Amino acid sequence: MAKAHTLKIKLQLLLGEDIAMGPGKAELLEAIVEEGSISAAGRALGMSYRRAWLLVDTMNRSFRERLVATTPGGAKTGGARLTATGLKVLADYRAVQAAVADAAECAALKSLQRRLRTSSTPSPQSGKRR
Asked: Which tens digit of pLDDT belongs to each residue from 53-78?
């Protein structure tokens, strides 16, 4: 049974129209650390190599310094790794997420939750005749 009162916070760092960093990109960076390649990280997260590569490309273009460095040559001699900047950005993003989660436990949130219904009511349009 799902909780009646759940707060979901999705933290995204935007640069113009691009999402420079968000939860999915942070997961991808962590997977790159674990897997040592973009393709293996993508597979581990259930995404295509192209999707993973596009996310890495967006991150690398969004920050002043690259977050992910790649070496050609496949799994035996090449791969991908987070740069020092990439490790710092990932750590800072996770720290901000933790701070926001802590702030979400404030009295104002508890007040909002007390005012919520125990379940949502049907939309007036859901019973609309056609």
From this structure: 999 999 999 999 999 999 987 656 67
**pLDDT (0 to 100) of residue 126:** 66
Per-chain mean pLDDT for the chain: 88
pLDDT digits (tens, 9 = 90+) for 36-48: 999 999 999 999 9
Q: What is the mean pLDDT of residues 92-120?
A: 85
The residue segments making up the domain with residue 88 are 13-115
Residue 5 lies in a domain: no
Cα separation, 18 vs 14, whole angstroms = 6
Q: What is the CATH number of the domain that holds 65?
A: 1.10.10.10
d(CA 15, CA 18): 5
Longest CA span, the chain: 64
Number of domains, the chain = 1
Q: Are strands 13-15 and 18-21 parallel, antiparallel or unpaired?
A: antiparallel
